[in-house]
Amino acid sequence: MGNSFEDRLLRRLADLREMRALSLEELAAQSGISRATLSRLERGETSPTAEMLGKLCAVYGLPMSRLIAEVEQAPVQLIRRAEQAEWHDASTGFVRRMVSPPARGFGAELIEGRLPAGAAIDYAQPPVRGLEQHMWMLSGVLDYTIDGATHRLQAGDCLRFHLYGATHFSCPGPEPAHYLIAICEP
Predict the structure, then answer these.
(1) Domains of the chain with CATH codes
(2) Cα gap 25→40, rounded to integer Å
(3) pTM
(4) Contact, 46 vs 164, CB < 8 A?
(5) What is the enclosing helix (H) or strand (E) of 163?
(6) How confident is the model at residue 71 (pLDDT cuts 50, 70, 90)?
């Protein structure tokens, strides 16, 4: 593995498993991701999807944004556009940009999301129960299901909630869904 963002992310996932003294079999059982896929992931033979990262973060009890922040270089006060880490999910086309990543002394973070028309992402459980989130739609349409209720968000709409259960994101199109999420620790 090299020193790209994805390489550092995969190393951090392997480190988290080792720190918790979990075998690949134990992590597979807890995450619902096959042992073979986890092994290929740690060897850098496959890229993680948003769903996989969501499942792993739930096992480790940390928000995905914290995981991503842990693999970035040291945070700074002024985060220029070129320094904002982006992660691409090749399977869905989902793009997540850390506009204001987690940092020591700050309780909130800001994330930009772009979900292509027709794409969907499921998270079986939150990484941390009770996370406060504020989702602001910039453009497009996003159907967001939380606690069994689906909310159709359009440009300018804001959905705020505390995250406790499974969620489902889908973009009915015809344009991509573009939104910002502010996350605050419970």
Answers:
(1) 5-69 (1.10.260.40), 77-184 (2.60.120.10)
(2) 13
(3) 0.67
(4) no
(5) strand 158-163
(6) confident
